[in-house]
Write a structure and sequence with these properties.
This protein has six helices and six strands; from the N terminus they run ααααβββαβββα. The protein is mainly α. It folds into two domains: about 150 residues, no CATH class; about 90 residues, no CATH class. Strands 1-6 form a two-stranded antiparallel sheet. The longest helix has about 35 residues. The protein is elongated and about 85 Å long. The N and C termini lie far apart (about 65 Å).
């Protein structure tokens, strides 16, 4: 563990404090369980939405009109095509009621559970989470017969999940650029990456083990299942 200034946090015996780790099998079990659960829940709700539409419409034409109206918002408000930091506050509030949003939260938690928070970009308004192991992408090209190469920081393969769950969305951009002291007589230079930001919940190295978002998402999906079943029953009775 570290203090706010990233110095080691020591206990009364002058030993650095540590947090209990997460077992490999626990990480695998939780991640796999969340992925399977998200798949099954979304599949069942998708079938349920189709049955509800079938129960309420009176013709094939009506069904063809209703399906896009129901499915397109699921895509837009799911939090993957458009990540949560890109949504305004009111849009995020509305998105939370969509089953696709809850399904994506389950996937996000499954992606992050057991991972350590990586480094962050310093000079972008929306934080970008980089690869945990510091792996860089190398680009090579030819110039005047010589091979030139350049290393670039790479976004994490689960960057969207980090942005959805770890960013303080109401405070995006509330971050002063971190700088390194320049040489004597020179101006400080802005750092490319940082270990923490004010608009991010977790500093670099924090192990993600928070299942609360998954619990909320599962509860929302359960409510959707119940509502869909009731609407379907009412629609079928009206058809009779």
């Amino acid at each position: 563990m570290t203090n706010a200034d990233f110095s080691p946090a020591m206990d009364e015996n002058r030993r650095q404090k540590t947090l209990p780790g997460i077992g490999v099998w626990e990480v695998v079990g939780v991640s796999l369980g969340l992925k399977i659960g998200a798949f099954l829940c979304v599949a069942v709700i998708g079938v349920g939405i189709g049955l509800v539409i079938s129960a309420l419409v009176r013709s094939t034409t009506q069904a063809v009109m209703w399906v896009p109206l129901v499915l397109i918002p699921q895509i837009l408000f799911g939090g993957f095509v458009i990540s949560m930091p890109e949504m305004s506050g009111r849009v995020r509030q509305v998105a939370q009621f969509f089953p696709s949003f809850s399904g994506q939260r389950l996937i996000d938690v499954s992606h992050l559970y057991g991972r350590r928070a990586p480094k962050l970009t310093n000079q972008t308004k929306t934080p970008t989470f980089l690869t945990s192991d510091g792996e860089k992408e190398t680009v090579e090209w030819q110039r005047d017969g010589n091979t030139i190469s350049q290393d670039f920081e790479s976004p994490s393969e689960v960057n969207i999940s980090w942005q959805n769950l770890a960013v303080r969305h109401e405070a995006i951009g509330h971050h002063e650029h971190a700088t390194d002291d320049g040489y004597e007589g020179s101006s400080p230079t802005k750092r490319e990456t940082v270990e923490s930001r004010e608009d991010v919940k977790y500093q670099q190295g924090t192990v993600y083990q928070y299942l609360y978002p998954a619990g909320v998402a599962a509860s929302t999906l359960g409510i959707w299942l119940a509502i869909g079943f009731m609407i379907m029953q009412v629609g079928l009775r009206l058809k009779k």
